[in-house]
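Practice problem: predict the structure.
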Amino acid sequence: MSKKLVMGNEAIAFGVIRAGVDVVTGYPGTPSTEVLETIAKHRPSNVYVEWSVNEKVAMEVAAGASYAGARSLVTMKQVGLNVASDPLMSLAYIGVKGGMVVLVADDPGPISSQTEQDTRHFAQFAHLPIFDPESPENAYFLIGEAFKYSEKYHTPVIFRPTTQICHACAGIELNDDIDKHNIEGFIKDKKWVIFPRLSYENHIRIVKQERALGDVFSEFGYNRMNNDKTARYGIISGGVSSVYVREVLEDTDDHVRTLSVATPNPFPEKLAVRFLDGLTDVLVIEELDPVLEEALLKICGKYHLNVNIHGQYTDETNIAGANHYENVLTAIDKFMGRKLTVKKLQIDSPQLPVRMPVLCAGCPHRASFYSVKLAMQRIKQKAVFTGDIGCYTLGNAKPLNMVDTCLCMGADITIAQGLQRIDDTVKHIAFIGDSTFFHTGIPGIINAVYNETDITVIILDNSTTAMTGQQPHPGTGYTMMGDSHEKVHIDKVLAGCNVGLIKRVSPVCLEQAVAAVQEAVAYKGVSAVIFEKPCIGLSKSGPIPKVDAEKCIGCQSCIKEIGCPAILPMKNKKITIDTNLCYGCGFCSQICPVKAIGGAEE
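Answer:
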C-alpha cells in the first residue's frame, strides 16, 4: 500500500491494473486519454495495450479478448461511443465471458468536444449497466466493481467518468495486490454467433436481467443514502454532482435526506422507494440530462407517491453545461427556501482575458492551409474547404479562414462529396489529419473513388495524434507497447484505393506546396496532397529567423497572412520574433514581400 497524488484518469488506470486486466484498447480522446497511457506505463508484463485505429475496432478487439475469458478494458470519449455503438449494441445481446468494461468519458461543458452527450442514455438504450463515479478515489475502487459485475452477469459494463473526475487530482492509497483469475480460452459455442432467433431470446433475457440488477444495485454499497427520518426534503444526485451536494450541506443543520446514485442504469428502484418514503419534495442534481429525474418521476407514478420532483423539468437546475459548487448551492438554496446557513465562496480573482484557440507557433498545419489558400488565389478558383476533428480545426480562425465545415471524424471527405454533387463549379477540398485518416478517412476515400467524385483531399501528416497528446498511430512506426513496426504509408493506401493523383510535399516549402495543390486541383477525379511535416512537439525545425529592422517596412503581411503567434508587432509597426515561441520553421521568411525575415532555412 502506498499513498500517491494522482489524476483521476491515473486513479482509474491503477484500479484497472488492480482488477487484473489482461487487454486494454482504445482511441485517444480528451478527457479519457490518460487512462490507457497510464496503464501502458505501469502495466504488468502480461498486459497487452494498444491504441486502435478507431473506437469500433477497439471495442471489437476487447470483445474478442473477453470471449476468451480475459478481462478487457476499452477507452474512449463520449463521441467515440457513437463510432463504437454498432458492436456494443450487439455485445449487449451476445454477452461476454471475461469481465469487459467500456470506459466512456463524458465532457460536460463541453470543454474539448463537438457535443455534450450523456452516456447514461446509451446505457439505457443498450440495456447495459453503467457506473457513474463521483471522485478519483471513488473511481479507483468502483472500476474494480465494474469488472466483477461484468464477469458475474456476462455483460459489458459502461464506466462513465466526466471531465471533472478525469482531470481532478487526489491522494489515494494504492493497493499493489492484483486480482488473480484464470483465462480459460475461447470455447466454441453457437451462442457467440448472432442470429435473429438468438437475438430475440437474448433480448428477453437482458431485459429481465436488467430488472434483476436494479434490485441488486438497491443493495449496492456505492449507492449511498443518508436516511434522515425527520427530513421532508430530499436531494438525489450522481457522479461529481454528489460531491458538490455534500460540500453545500456539510456546514448546515437542515434536515435533508440525500441519495447518491453510482449506478444510474439499472436504476436502484427499491432503494429509491425507501429514499422517497415520507418526503414531500426532492431536488435532482445531475449532469447532463434528466436521467435520475425521469427515473424518480416514473417511480412516483408507479407507486402513486405524492412527492414533488424538482429539477430540469421544473427549470430549477441547469439543462446544459457542467455543475459546480456555485450553481449547486444556488439550486439548493432556492429549493430549501434559502434556509441554508452555508458560506458562499468568495473569489476575488481578476477577470481572465479571453484566449482564442490558435495553432501553435511553427505548426506545419498553418503552412498547409496557407499554401492551399495561396494556390486557390493564384488560379482564381472558388473553393469550399471541409474540415475535420483535430488541431487543424483551428484553421477556421482568422487570418486563415480555411475551414468551412466540421462535423465529426472522417466527415470532411464525405461532406465534400455531397457538396460536389450539388455544385460542380466549385472546387471541394477536404482537410484531414494522418491519425484521422486511419480512423475513419479511408472509407470516404474509397467511396469517392468508387463513385467518381471530383474532390481534392489534403492530408496533414504530422506523424502523430497531436491534439490528444502525441499518441502513435499506424503511420508512426511504433505501437503503444513501445514496439517498432513497419509504417503503414498513407500514399500506398491511397494508391491501393486507386486515387488518381497523389502528391507528397513539405508544407513549409511554399512554392513547391502551392504547385502540388494546383496540380491536384486541376486533376479531374479524386486527387490527394500529403503535406508531410512532423508536429513541433516531436521535432524542432531549425534556427530562429532574424528580422532585418532596416528592410522591414512595417506592412505586417507576415502577421496578416499567417497569424503565427511568434510574430509580434512593435510600436513602430515593424515586427519582431518571439524567440520563446518560435520553432524555426522558416515559413514566415517566405511570406515577407521585402525579404526582411531571414537567417533560417528548412
